Amino acid sequence: MNPLLTRRAFIRGLGILCAGWNVKGWTAPLTTIPFSFSLSQTSETRNLMGTFVSITLLHPSRDQAQAAVGAAFQRMEGLVSLFNRHDPGSALSVLNERGSLPGPPPELLKLLRQSLAFQARTRGLFDVTIKPVLDLYESAKEGGRLPSGPAIRDALGRVGSASLTLSPKKIAFSKEGMGITLDGIAKGTIVDKTIAFLRKEGIRHALVDAGGDLRVMGGRADGLPWRIGVYDPDHESEFLEMITLREGAVATSGNYMVYFDREKVHHHILSPESGRSPTGSVSATVTAPAAEQADALATALMLLGPEESRSFIDRQEHTSSLLLTREGTKVYSRRWPRVTGLRQRLE
After folding, report:
1. Max Cα distance, the chain (Å)
2. What is the pTM of this model?
3. Strand runs (DSSP E) across the chain, as ranges?
4. Are 271 and 23 in contact (CB under 8 A)?
5. Cα angle vertex 129, ends 6, 153, to 5°?
6. Per residue in 85-113, pLDDT tens?
7. For 222-241, what is the HEC assignment?
8. 8 A C-beta contact, residue 69 and residue 57
9. Mean pLDDT of 194-222
């Protein structure tokens, strides 16, 4: 199966009782656990977007919480069907196949406009039109090789948002062979929309974790923040960091899971300038007010490299970052939320 996104879950929302993460099937049963005299914890985990997606709520009404979780997953599935480039029936796949999409869904149009805003914000490093280069690497991998320099340069000739037209009437490419991948932003967007949906449903305490893109609201009901563990990519049974959040989002991008060589030097994060993967960092974790923002910035930070990434994030409001270099050095931004007792073993 070709998933929408295939990141490993490098962030885990510990929350309360690590709900929903001992799941080995496609869908975990919805569970409700008494938490206090006034609130119960309701959790469910499903396999969506090529990863485990978990929703955890704290709410006085068990029935209302369970109904909200079910409706939230239904909303998620509808968005995945728009943004999944691997689904031949999705709006994005139709655009990539035909080169134009008349009357595009408003959600897709809005996300593409947001993507262009992040592209400008990151000086062009976050570029959703990188798909021709990504396709080239994926095709070469099937043949047991890496793409040649001339092939990469040819694919880069079909990359660039200047050749993308966006309007409520039509989304279109002006160059043949162009394509869009939303792998670096769609999951964060879906998490944000799920939190917004739950808020409208009257939920005040929630954690939505989509295998590496996570957002929380309301803190834990005991007045404490949610606890979030960032995995060490070299020691998956341990946390690289532990952070706490009452409101906000965390996302990690890295060279794990989708890579094209055994050494993980060539992976799914590709520069729109060189067509090659960055070599300085193996992972980038970003905290931000929204998961969409954290998702896109984490991808861009991988391309910037450790030192430049730190100075870039320090100039952004309400964001922080942690980069792990290939040598194992951790590079923190100025506002990274340090917590004592950072390195812990998973239970």
Report:
1. 66
2. 0.86
3. 11-13, 31-34, 40-48, 51-59, 100-102, 164-166, 170-173, 205-210, 213-217, 226-232, 235-245, 248-254, 281-288, 320-325, 330-332
4. no
5. 105
6. 988 999 999 999 999 999 999 999 999 99
7. CCCCEEEEEEECCEEEEEEE
8. yes
9. 93
Give per-residue pLDDT as tens, 178-200: 999 999 999 999 999 999 999 99
Tokens encoding 101: 């999409």
At 77, which amino acid appears?
E
Q: Which long-range contacts (CB under 8 A, 24 or more apart) does 34-38 make?
A: 35/221, 36/221, 36/222
- The CA distance from 283 to 302, in Å, is 7
Cα gap 16→245, rounded to integer Å: 13
CA–CA distances in Å: residue 1 to residues 9, 50, 132, 137, 253: 18, 8, 20, 18, 21
In this structure, what token pair is assigned to residue 223?
């007045």
- Describe the crossing of helices 186-200 and 62-83 by its angle, rounded to 10 degrees: 150
SS (H, E, C) 19-77: CCCCCCCCECCCEEEECCCCCEEEEEEEEECCEEEEEEEEECCHHHHHHHHHHHHHHHH
